[in-house]
Each structure stands twice: as structure tokens, then as C-alpha cells.
Write a structure and sequence with these properties.
Length: 314
């Protein structure tokens, strides 16, 4: 179904022309992150593949070069980004600022190890993004700008109760120990944080009317990043593909949010929204907790207080 419901979206025809535009995709050396890099570069963008492991990033760059980036023939470069420590995320943003004078698209895709979910999925991406807001706003002040921030959440954020809280930093790393499917709930916890952050970020960005920026949270849908490791991978891929999408198609929602023509043509409608993937680009209602502005503000306040404690201001 992931494939079937996504076929109406065609990256070759439904994306804006990205020639002269600059994008960053974090976690871009595999899965839907790599597929997002590919789609944006083929639309003409200069894309920074932000990842920690240089050898894997180099391998991804070589793969993209071998496949070709036509028709847009954009460019893909590696940016070292380590999300295990927010201070390193800030350094990566500062490094980017020495290389570029504009940023049109920021699309974080983070995968983190067990035990560091909230750092990988939320706190470090928060720092990385906030460090880049000034250059995003500078770009947004240009005539005919179309600047976007895309955070990858998940529909599983809806599994959490509305009573979730973020009053102190320990609330960020709730383990749900003893609860059924505790690992999934922990993952959902960080994905809720991303939707709340996206909406709070949009409210703050809207305060500067001279620099219009669209922030969107998305659910990518089910994505097959594993069947190639099974016995009889070609057959397994065909069978799995009946239910969920290959990364190339699984990235459609991310790419729609980052560069879709529909978003460009109706920016006000898409500001701060949550998108689901069936069909691609569907504006959906997130959970009640995700719609709680007060909860979002508490999350923001606790985040900035924690960052101040470890020496990161703003």
C-alpha cells in the first residue's frame, strides 16, 4: 500500500526547480535520508549530506555519482554531523556557515542508538536547526524565496497519552519501563517531541514577517530498508513492496514537504502542519498532545534550559 498510495506524486514533475538552491539532509547516507538527497539533487539542488561516518558518507556519494543526478544535475557534498552531542551539532552548523551564504531547505533525518533517543532525534536536531535559523531567515528575505524546514516524525506519536509532560529534562528520556511495547512508546515519545517542536518553531518564525519560512512535520510511511538482507532478497522485496514502500518512494513525503510545488503555491496552508503519506502530502491531524501549544512551550523552555546548562545559548 505504501507504493500504491504514493504513485500520484511524481518527483520529476511535482518538485520546484532547485537550481541555485542549497539544502541540508541529515542522516542522508542511507534509507529515506539518502533517497531524499537523491531527489533534491536530481531537481538541481546543491545538497549537503550531513552524517557522522565519513566512510559511509563517501560510499553514499560514490553511489549517487554512479547512478547520476539527471535531469537537474545538482551537487552532493558531505558535511560532518555528529548528533550524539548537541555541542557537536552546533559545531557542524557553524562549519556549514563558513561554506555557504544561503540555505533553502533543511531536512533532518536522524537515527540514533538505544539509550540516546532524545539526543539524536530531538535535542541535537533542535540545536542544529536553531543555529541555522539566521541563514534560513536571510535566504527567506530574498525575492521569490521558498525556504522550508522538514522534521521527520511518525504516526506512532499518536500512541502516547495526552498526559505526557516535558517539565524537566528527565521527561525527555521516559523509558516506559514495564509497559507493553516500551521500545515503541519510547520512540513515539521522541516523535511527539518533533511535532511539538515543529509547531512551536513555526510560531516563532512567523514573528518575522519579512522572512517567510515553512516548517513541516511528516510521517514518511512504512519504508522497506531491510528486505535486501533477507534470504531471496528479490522475491522478499517484491512481497514486502506490496505493503510498504522502497526508500525511493518512502522519501516522497519528505521531498513533497521540502520541495513540492503544492507547498510553494499555498505556503500559508502548510505552515506548521503534520503530513501523512497516503496519499503523499496529506495534511493530517496529529495527536491531542501534539496540538497542545502549552505543552509545546514547556518543551521549548525545558530544552533551552538544558542547553544553557551544557553551555549552548539561544
Amino acid at each position: 500500500m505504501g507504493n500504491l498510495f504514493s504513485r500520484k506524486f511524481d518527483p520529476l514533475n511535482d518538485l520546484v526547480n532547485l537550481k541555485g538552491k542549497v539544502a541540508i539532509v541529515t542522516g542522508g547516507n542511507t534509507g529515506i535520508g539518502l533517497a531524499t538527497v537523491r531527489h533534491l539533487a536530481r531537481a538541481g539542488a546543491k545538497v549537503y549530506l550531513a552524517a557522522r561516518n565519513e566512510s559511509r558518507a563517501t560510499g553514499a556519494l560514490a553511489q549517487l555519482e554512479h547512478e547520476g543526478l539527471a535531469p537537474g544535475n545538482g551537487e552532493v557534498l558531505w558535511l560532518k554531523l555528529d548528533l550524539t552531542d548537541p555541542r557537536d551539532a552546533k559545531k557542524a552548523a557553524e562549519e556549514f556557515l563558513t561554506r555557504e551564504t544561503r540555505l533553502d531547505i533543511l531536512a533532518p533525518h536522524a537515527i540514533g542508538p538505544d539509550g540516546m533517543f532524545f539526543l539524536f532525534f530531538y535535542v541535537s536536531p533542535f540545536v542544529f536547526t536553531q543555529s541555522l535559523v539566521p541563514i534560513l531567515q536571510k535566504t527567506a528575505r530574498e525575492p521569490d524565496s521558498d525556504v522550508r524546514i522538514v522534521n521527520v516524525s511518525s504516526v506512532v506519536h499518536k500512541f502516547l497519552p495526552a498526559s505526557v509532560k516535558f517539565d524537566e529534562i528527565s521527561d525527555f528520556n521516559t523509558t516506559y519501563k514495564g509497559r507493553p511495547l516500551s521500545g515503541l512508546l519510547r520512540y513515539a515519545h521522541t516523535k511527539l517531541m518533533l511535532v511539538l517542536w515543529t509547531k512551536s518553531l513555526q510560531r516563532r518564525l512567523n514573528e518575522d514577517k519579512s522572512a517567510p519560512i515553512t516548517a513541516i512535520a511528516i510521517h514518511p510511511g512504512g519504508v522497506d530498508t531491510f528486505s535486501h538482507t533477507w534470504p531471496f532478497p528479490r522475491l522478499m522485496g517484491l512481497l514486502v513492496g506490496l505493503a510498504i514502500a522502497k526508500p525511493e518512494v518512502g522519501a516522497y513525503n519528505s521531498v513533497f514537504a521540502a520541495a513540492g510545488k503544492k507547498v510553494r503555491d499555498d505556503k500559508a496552508t502548510y505552515q506548521g502542519v503534520y503530513l501523512e503519506s497516503q496519499p503523499t502530502g496529506k495534511i493530517a491531524k496529529p495527536s491531542q498532545a501534539a496540538l497542545n501549544e502549552e505543552l509545546g512551550e514547556r518543551l521549548w523552555k525545558t530544552t533551552t534550559e538544558f542547553l544553557a546548562e551544557i553551555g549552548i545559548q539561544g
